Amino acid sequence: MKRRSFVGLALAAPLAACSTGTPTGTVSSPAPSSAPSTPAAQSAKLVVWVDGSRAPAVKEIGKQFSTDNPGVTIEVVTKNFADIGPQFSTQVPSGKGPDIAVTPHDGIGNFIKSGVVAPIELGDLANRLTPLAVSAFSQDGQCYGLPYSIENIGLVRNNALSKDVPQTWEDLITAGKEAGKKYPLLLGVGEGGDPYHTFPLQSSFGNTVFRMNDDGTFSDTLTIGDETGLKFATWLGSQGKKGNKVLDTSLTGDIAKEQFLNQNSPFFITGPWNTPDFEKKKLDVTVMPIPSAGGQPARPFVGVQGFILSARSKNALLATEFLVNYLGTKEVQLKLFEQGDRVPALTEAAEDATVTGNPLVQGYAEAGQDGLPMPSIPPMAQVWTFWGGAEAAIVGGAEPEQTWTTMAKNIEAAIKKAG
Asked: Where does CATH 3.40.190.10 sit in the chain?
């Protein structure tokens, strides 16, 4: 397969409309002369919530911001990543919480619905970010976050166990069996299912959860239960307990990783978050696109990480300056890249040799070239539990079409109930 740069791929993605009214000046310097002005004599504090991996880079640029804006302090509060979204939703309405918080884009829909997040005026920076990243943080023509990284899953191959480049799911199983290890391939399903990791296979049958709009966003029209979804369900059943047993609910994501690290399989469907563990084990690995099971391209969900602005921030202008003209710079986005090996959302940073020279990062980028932004609309919150449960049941031997149809009806009912 011909390799293409990630930037070129991302630039080809549809771009949701985003306000670009007032230019914010250059974004390649932490302190551009045309940045929005703030009262120098007035003291102010910005509170930023991040997790431990991002804290060092944000603290460093926060010190620079304080130096450039005397009287202004940046308080970086470190939290567990999984706690940031829920706590942001509960604390902001009462006037508490941070001015800025890091978040994955798929929480944006519910943040907007509950009124806790404010739109951000990106200005000229919107044209410097990859369209897919801006689209992921946009709804109804407005941007609700500063994206900084893009991630997706791929097929990781242990080069000591296989040299094959499978083009289809059948090729993958064959290559895996030829390696003579315990598992031909590893995909953590677990007792609750894992639709995030199986979605590329589902999409290869032409099925998505919701209908896509022309601008690359998702409508609230449910399509998961259509004919293409039923075809995927039937195929999924053929891979489980009553089929070839390649997929197994007893195999969780953590167990799958452990087995791959112990070299009990040549292939593992996973994401860049496991790269540090591969490096610690000194495994020689290659990242490739996930093979198709249904004849169409396997399209993984693309997740975008970014920073959001509280709707209750008392220093919104100051916070926007910090977001756009500091966190949105090449320097900072490369520092954040060093913490997680996720492709920067800023095209200038994504084109840097630090990024393009990393073969694993580029492997994931190629694996995500046909990816779809994970739906961020509020109805998506009603999907995951039913979706995962149905997949686990089918892998465990339940009748595929009936189980899938019931799942779709349950999702639709839950969405209506949630309003």
From this structure: 6-151+302-373, 154-299+383-418
Spatial CA neighbour of 18 closest among 117, 145, 150 = 145
**Taking CA 194 as the corner, what is the angle to CA 16 and CA 388, rounded to the nearest 5 degrees?**
90
Classify 44 as helix, strand or coil.
strand
* Residue 32 confidence class, pLDDT cut points 50, 70, 90: very low
For the segment 362-398, what is each residue's pLDDT rounded down to a tens digit?
A: 999 999 988 998 998 999 999 999 999 999 999 999 9
pTM value? 0.83
Quote the CATH superfamily of domain 154-299+383-418.
Periplasmic binding protein-like II (3.40.190.10)
* Rg of the chain taking only CA atoms, in angstroms: 22
pLDDT number for residue 42: 66
The backbone torsions φ and ψ at residue 243, rounded to the nearest 5 degrees and listed phi first, read -125, -130
Q: Residues near 419 by Cβ (< 8 Å), separated by ≥ 6?
A: none
For domain 6-151+302-373, say whether CATH 2.130.10.10 is its number: no
